[in-house]
Every structure is written in structure tokens, then in C-alpha cells.
Design a protein that fits this description.
By secondary structure, the protein is α/β, with parallel strands linked by helices. Helix content is 41%, strand content 16%. Strands 3-4-5-6-7-8-9-12 form an eight-stranded parallel barrel, surrounded by seven helices. Strands 1-2 form a two-stranded antiparallel sheet. A two-stranded antiparallel ribbon has the order 10-11. α2 packs across α3 and α11 crosses α12.
Amino acid sequence: MKHTTRPLGRSGLQITPLTVGGAPLGSMPKNFGYEVAEEQGVATAMAALTGPIRAIDTSCAYSDGESERRIGIALARVGGLPDDYVLSTKVTRDLATGDFSGAQMRRAIAGSLERLGLDRVPLLYLHDPENTTFAAASERGGPIEVLRELKDTGVAAAIGVAGGDTAIITEYVDTGWFDVLLTHNRFTLVNRTAERMIDHAVDRGMGVVNAAVYGGGILATGTSSSSRYGYRDAPEVLLDAIRRIEVLCAGADVPLAAAATRFSVRDPRISSTVLGISRPGRIADAVDAGALPIPESLFDEIDRIASALPAGIGPR
């Protein structure tokens, strides 16, 4: 079956407009508010590997490697990584000690490959470099040099930087050393903080992957079931904006989650949009949401609400 793909910047990879987010399938109740049993996580990963979305994203940091381990079980059960599939993982600090050295990146990728049952990955990110300094990350033998070496030796076909704080991540984008940018929680219906950084990345030929378009859940389920954005309590002014968007979506007969998904998918700068998925059946729902035709007039109204929000109310 042929799937619609987009070029992932200059990386040489082709990626589907949606990527399955592997954080929740490893079970992260502190972030997402619910547990995911091992077999459910493995079943979700198997459905992801055999379904219409041909990309999955994980990290050594998700549930201390449990997300990767469950994906590794799924990979073994389906006979390995399909040729047309973009699996991405991330290396980051030692979560116990905070060590963000080049040596730690080597330990992290070794653990990731072991859990996944692979000897190479299509895409490898430097994850959350907010936890070090750019000077330390870019020094000789440091994390950036290690990632570039992993690409040069074929352990990773492409490398990227994945993080939140846009001021910090822009430093990495501007180096020209990375193939892909992954941003999260900063380019959604109610937060456009990453707009300028995305432009910088595109200007440099990078692929852009946009994650957490539901803001941790509230832009999927609505304010009746959540009052948190970006994994923290949302200020009332932000909740009010989301309520107004909910009213607009209801009036247009458009599910809030579909609007949040299409907001990202329709943007020509975004190569792929990551949706956290923890149940096999949600994959078909995600595909439907990503393809739902939504009038531009609705997004125009949503843009007016977002543009009126005061600066600094959400993640930077």
C-alpha cells in the first residue's frame, strides 16, 4: 500500500503527515493522567508499525526507556522495521544524575538500540538540551559532536534537535548542524511561540516536526475534562480562549481534536505532526482527524482568538 509522504527537509527521509507519538504508550501517568498496561502499549506499537501512519517517535527518556522497550517487542513481533518507516528516538541526559555529556549520549544510544532491537535508526534527536548550555553541548567531544558522528557512521540516517524553550532551541537550529527540528506545545491552536523558530528551520532546509498539538490533552478533550496546558495548570485567560474555540468548533460541527490536528497538518512548513496514541483504535481516529476538511474561515477566527492572548501565558 502506498502512503502519502512529504520530504523531511534535507534529511533524505520521506515521512507521512502524521507520526505516532510513543510517549503515552510507554505509560507516563504524571504527564497524561492515565496508566497504559504493557500489552496495550505493545499492541498500539504493532498497530502503528502496520498501519497507515508510517512514522513513530519515542525517546530513551520516556518512562525511563519503557516506551522504547515496548516498541522493540512490537518490532520483533512484526518482523523488524519496515523499509518505508521512519522511527525516531532521542538521546538525552541521565535522568538520575543530570549528566548531559557526550559520553552520556553514547550510553543513551546504546541503551536505545538494545531496547529497540535495532542497530541503526532513521532519525535521532538530541532531546531537551534546555538541561545543559549551548557551549557545553557544542564543545569538542560533547553531545552535538557525538550525534554528528553517529550520523557519519550510519547509526542514524538523520539527526535532529527536539525541545521546548524556543530561545534555547533556536541556537541549535541556527548552527545548520541538524537535519530536523521537533518542537512541542509551542505551535498549537492557542500558542504560536514557535512560529519564528519554524521559519528559521525551514529557511535552513530543515524538516519540521510538530508535537503536542493537543497541549497535553486539553485541545483534544476540551476544558470540561482538563484545566492543564503543556502538563501544567493553565491560567484562566488561556482556558477562556480554549472555551471560545470550543464554541466555534461546535458551531462549525468540527471536533476540537480535529481542528487541533488540522491546524498543524495543513501548514506547508510542517513535515509531520506527532499525535500521542496509547490505543490501537486511536490510529484510525488520528488519520480521520488529519484528513478532515475544515474551512479556512474557522482557522481565521481561531487565529484572532490566539493573537489576542497576552504574551507569556504559556510555554516559551
